[in-house]
Write a structure and sequence with these properties.
Largest sheet: 8 strands, mixed
Strand content: 15-25%
Helix content: 25-40%
Strand order of the largest sheet: 4-3-2-5-1-6-7-8
Radius of gyration: 29 Å
Length: 611
């Protein structure tokens, strides 16, 4: 069985919400040898915040030296995200191996397990075989009848914020829903609960009293926010200050729940140093929860999918982007209370770009756009995610903000498409900014750039320089060629030649115009039969064009990747980018194949700009 075959097998079965119960899960685990009985757990239920709380606890515990399992749902981009050990996803080969074993047991059962029950069993087997000291276990839905509740008494049962959700399965009041979620509380554990709606907390207190379980109801009066920006936030809890990488006031509440859970674990004998707590909170990552993907323009993704989440999202926007209207890249599920969700978002909206989430429960984008238009909002419907990302960025502009939200089914896909869509959008804008310069401006600015290059120590000490023949609106380096013609000590100039498989050669051209030809991209390039191919390790200075650059040494090429493949071979060269100031951007996205430049030459600085 391959990883892909394992996932297809699992997803062939439904979630079976109409067949809630623990019988199938318990039978399946018994057939596997009850791996869950070899593990200890923190069991986390709730309507909102349980995933973030799980992520914080996981980050703290494995930094405390424990081998820690993390089980969450749903995944954002990769199925293997759902089972992690010490922050690493389950390897695909291991998923396939365990799924094959689980399949043999599950297919022999008269009442076949559901998809979530299969995944839960796979996770238990993986965590047990990995030798986990403790597992942070997120409930799928509810609590009492959720497949994860097949475990024995956990170390700590954690109840995060409770609201009205899944009312067709869990009940139509907060009391009924809280009773379902409190089903994870078992004799012998400690309980920690988010002190939310009074009627929900009352139910939890009653269950703990009946089962003689000590309860910590988190008192948010002990919580003091200190500062918050797009890079994270700082807060004080009971007189001690912490940094938290996750954003939003609601995440401070979740952090307080995590901190109280740590205290409960310590009381049960778990050794958790304070430095592990500090580092865990400071470095925790939880994708698609008010996640800042970019700052120029601001691009935030948030998978919140109910009115409570929308309220928290709107509060975060008001706090972090005060007074600013944002463009929402939005998709919702038809069975969610999206009118209530949108009531929180519409006052903050400049406009909406609507998409259809990847779910059979999705509200079509055209229908959502029509609803928003009927409410007086500016809204359009899109069908293609990369195009919709670019449309939202166009509407926001480089100084604006885009918030992608409404459904985890949607924002996971947006995260996957983000980097390529953003680079394409930014490339087109910076090419336009460059091309908007008049021919006279380009000539004058190119002259100033050439003067800077000629005066630079990198150029003066170089014996072999790689440059380029400009095309379209690029910086013109003819001034370097003319200066070299009259120089007492001439440098060897080499030029790029694009060949098959997106590879590049450096060629020293022969004499005369016949030594040049027009390449496949309309670029003037040397004819290798009339010139000499120069090994890249002989090059001292590379002057490469780009469509954009920033002050951190990142550059954005034309997208072909020729320079990206060639530059790592220039082992002795200084790499410099050449561009106009109009092409500058505050911060460029880094990609694995990017080669940072050591200097950027523009028309504004007489020395060039060091990285």
């Amino acid at each position: 069985m391959t990883p892909q075959e394992a996932i297809r097998y699992i997803e062939n079965y439904t979630w079976s919400t109409t067949r809630l119960g623990l019988e199938r899960t318990r039978e399946l685990l018994t057939r596997l040898g009850d791996p869950q009985k070899r593990l200890k757990f923190i069991h986390v239920a709730g309507s909102n915040g349980k995933g973030s709380t799980c992520a914080m606890l996981d980050a703290i515990l494995w930094r405390a030296g424990y081998r820690t399992g993390l089980y969450t749902s749903p995944y954002i981009q990769d199925f293997c995200e759902r089972m992690q050990v010490n922050g690493e996803n389950i390897p695909g080969e291991e998923l396939a191996r365990i799924t094959e074993r689980v399949r043999l047991a599950a297919d022999a059962m008269a009442d076949h397990p559901s998809q979530f029950e299969l995944v839960t069993a796979i996770a238990m087997e993986y965590f047990a075989s990995s030798g986990c000291d403790i597992v942070v276990l997120e409930v799928g839905m509810g609590g009492a009848l959720d497949a994860t509740n097949a475990i024995d008494s956990p170390e700590v049962a954690v109840l995060t914020n409770i609201g009205l959700e899944h009312t067709e399965y869990l009940g139509d009041t907060l009391e009924k829903i809280a009773a379902h979620k409190a089903g994870i509380i078992k004799p012998g554990c400690h309980a920690v609960c988010y002190d939310g709606p009074a009627e929900a907390t009352a139910v939890i207190r009653q269950v703990c009293a009946e089962k003689s379980v000590p309860l910590t109801a988190v008192d948010f009066a002990d919580l003091t926010p200190i500062r918050q920006d797009l890079g994270g936030q700082r807060f004080a809890w009971r007189g001690r200050e912490y940094d938290l990488s996750l954003l939003g006031q609601h995440q401070l509440h979740n952090a307080a729940v995590a901190l109280e859970t740590v205290e409960a674990l310590r009381a049960r004998g778990w050794q958790i140093r304070e430095i592990a707590v500090e580092e865990g909170l400071q470095n925790v990552s939880w994708p698609a929860r008010f996640e800042v993907m970019n700052r120029h323009p601001v691009f935030i993704v948030d998978g919140g999918h109910n009115p409570q989440c929308a309220q928290a999202l709107s509060a975060g926007i008001r706090d972090l982007l005060p007074g600013r209207k944002v463009v929402f890249l939005l998709g919702v599920l038809r069975d969610k209370d999206y009118p209530a969700m949108l009531s929180y978002l519409m006052p903050l909206a400049r406009s909406f770009v609507c998409l259809t989430p990847l779910s059979d429960r999705a509200l079509p984008a055209a229908e959502l756009a029509a609803y928003l238009t009927g409410q007086g909002a500016a809204a359009t419907a899109g069908t293609d995610i990369p195009a919709a990302i670019r449309a939202a960025l166009d509407a926001a502009g480089e100084d604006g903000a885009v918030v992608a939200c409404g459904s985890l089914y949607l924002v996971g896909a947006i995260r996957g498409e983000w980097n390529g869509a953003y680079r394409k959008w930014l490339r087109s804008r910076k090419i336009k900014a460059r091309d908007d310069l008049t021919p006279e401006e380009r000539r004058e600015r190119s002259r100033r750039i050439c003067e800077q290059i000629l005066a630079s120590p990198e150029y003066r000490r170089a014996k072999t320089v790689m440059l380029y023949r400009h095309t379209r609106g690029e910086v013109q380096l003819t001034g370097l060629e003319k200066a070299n013609e009259t120089a007492e000590e001439k440098k060897r100039f080499v030029y790029p030649l694009c060949v098959e498989n997106r590879q590049m050669l450096a060629v020293a051209p022969g004499e005369g115009d016949e030594a040049w030809r027009t390449g496949p991209f309309g670029i003037s390039e040397p004819d290798p039969e009339r010139g000499q191919v120069v090994p890249p390790e002989e090059i001292d200075l590379v002057l490469c064009p780009c469509t954009s650059f920033d002050g951190q040494g990142h550059r954005l090429g034309m997208g072909g990747g020729y320079y990206d493949r060639f530059l790592p071979r220039c082992t002795h060269a200084t790499v410099a980018a050449v561009a106009f100031e109009a092409q500058r951007h505050p911060e460029l996205p880094a990609s694995p194949w990017d080669v940072p430049v050591e200097r950027v030459f523009t028309e504004n600085d007489g020395r060039g700009e060091p990285r």
